[in-house]
Amino acid sequence: MSIKQHIPNLLTSLNVLCGVLAVFFALNARIDIAIWLIFAGALFDFSDGFAARLLKAYSNIGKELDSLADLISFGAAPAAIWSTIIKYQLTGSYATNFFALSISQQVFTLLPFIMVAFAAFRLAKFNVDTRQTENFLGLTTTATGIFTAALAYKFIETPEWFTWMSPLVILAFIIFFSIMLISEVPMFSLKFKNIKWADNKERFTLLFLAIVCVVLLGVGGIAAVILYYIIISLTKWFIGIK
User: Fold this and answer.
1) Taking Cα atoms as reference points, which of 124, 106, 16, 115 lies closest to residue 70?
2) Which residue of 57, 115, 137, 188 is most buried, as measured by CB atoms within 10 A?
3) How far is it, in rounded angstroms, from Cα 199 to Cα 43?
4) What is the tens place of the pLDDT at every residue in 154-170?
5) Of 57-66, 73-82, 83-92, where does mean pLDDT reach its minimum?
6) C-alpha to C-alpha distances, 22 to 73, 76, 145, 179, nearest whole angstrom
7) Sign of the torsion angle spanned by Cα atoms 133, 136, 138, 143
8) Cβ atoms within 10 A of the Cβ of 207, count?
9) Sequence-separated (6 or more) residues with CB below 8 Å from residue 144
């Protein structure tokens, strides 16, 4: 294989690295760093597929590596962020040692990692499901990770806005997103295959909305865009619009 054939896999490997480091920093109470590592991982996740198409550098290894990267960056890393936030809400400190918690607090702190199992199932299903060549069935792990990073960013930036976000509310979010990951709800792919308007009308619309939300709400506005993406997909599925 020529050097250019390895470029997509290099980008995917950088996604893996971002994910592993995001987990490390999240569990060590540096959610701020973990958030940006998830965003960086998402950038590499979008660019590896684009590079593969541009260079015509497809491979079975690349497909499997991409799924492994997504499981870490958008499954394990978001779960680690939610776990740390729950521990903070239960104790009032990010620095509290896990083993100093009560049994019930430990259980609450570990529950977010259930989402990793659902993300793994979603990725395995995608790899063998021939129906998902163009669009998706169920929410992607990438969208789940981006939503978590954006909402966590807003939580850190303006905690006074999130007095309603108790551990039970977070667990409700996790259950909802876990169900969406393995659902049969049709959802259009967020990845651009080219820059033609006709082929990417929904993606360009979502991108424009994301820019507006970021201008108005900051980075946390991306979470609102992901929710819009989910609500639109659920509505179209419910009323039978393809």
Assistant:
1) 16
2) 115
3) 21
4) 999 888 888 888 999 99
5) 57-66
6) 7, 9, 11, 24
7) positive
8) 14
9) 74, 75, 78, 115, 119, 177, 180, 181
Strands (E), 82-234: 136-137, 186-187
b/e burial code for range 213-237 (CB count within 10 A of at least 16 → b): bbeebebbbbbbbbeebbebbbeeb
- Asked if residue 8 lies in contact with residue 55, where contact means CB atoms within 8 angstroms, the answer is yes
CB 39 within 8 A of CB 15: no
Phi and psi at residue 182, to the nearest 5°: -105, 10
Tokens representing residue 212 in the block = 């507006």
Q: Which of 221, 124, 242 is nearest to 181 (CA)?
A: 124
Condensed to tens digits (0 to 9), the pLDDT of residues 80-128 reads: 999 999 999 999 888 889 999 999 999 999 999 999 999 999 998 888 8
Lowest mean pLDDT among 100-109, 126-135, 174-183: 126-135
Rounded Cα–Cα distance for residues 182 and 168 (Å): 22
The model scores a pTM over 0.90: no
Beta strands, E only, the chain: 136-137, 186-187
User: Distance between terminal CA atoms of the chain?
Assistant: 40
Residue type, 139: L
CB 141 within 8 A of CB 45: no
Which residue, chain included where needed, has tokens 């920093």? 25
